[in-house]
Amino acid sequence: MTNDEKRKCSVLIPYKIKGGEVLVYLQKRSDNAKRAPGKFGFFGGGIDGAETPEQALVREIKEELDYTPDNFLYLEEFEKVWNLERTVLNVFCQQVGENFESQIKVLEGDYGQWFRESEALSHEKVMDGDKRVLKDFFQKLKH
After folding, report:
1. Structural domain tally of the chain?
2. pTM over 0.85
């Protein structure tokens, strides 16, 4: 399968450091979501047409959180498989402030929730493919 045949997405990992611990903000997907219903995962979505991954990220986060990300960093590209659909994830992260939740409005999914590293990597409802990305994310922050 060529890269052109794969679904391409941009996702954001909002994170904050509290008490020396890194917390990530994940979306609780609605029970009737097309992909991964009822699971926790990243905010973001598909890249449309000629959009760059950065343009798609800004558009998707505005649509899902009514928030315009800035000072975000590119983490890397990951490939994951969901129900035999191959997806290329362009993963970005952004350190956010303590008042992040008052700056956003969750417009897609049920709600957002903060997770500590141990919770994010072990929680049964965090998508397995996203756990792989989060493991890498936490590793990179430590170095």
Report:
1. 1
2. yes
> What are the backbone dihedrals phi and psi of residue 65, each rounded to the nearest 5 degrees, phi first?
-125, 0
Report phi then psi at 81, rounded to 5.
-120, 130
Which structure tokens are listed for 108? 């897609």
Looking up residue 25, the CATH number of its domain turns out to be 3.90.79.10
Domain membership of residue 124 as a residue range: 3-142
Which amino acid would we find at residue 2? Answer: T
The string of pLDDT tens digits covering residues 89-136 is 999 999 999 999 999 999 999 999 999 999 999 999 999 889 999 999
Taking residue 82's Cβ as centre, other Cβ atoms within 10 Å add up to 14
H/E element, 75: strand 73-82
In this predicted structure, the answer to whether residue 84 has a pLDDT above a threshold of 60 is: no
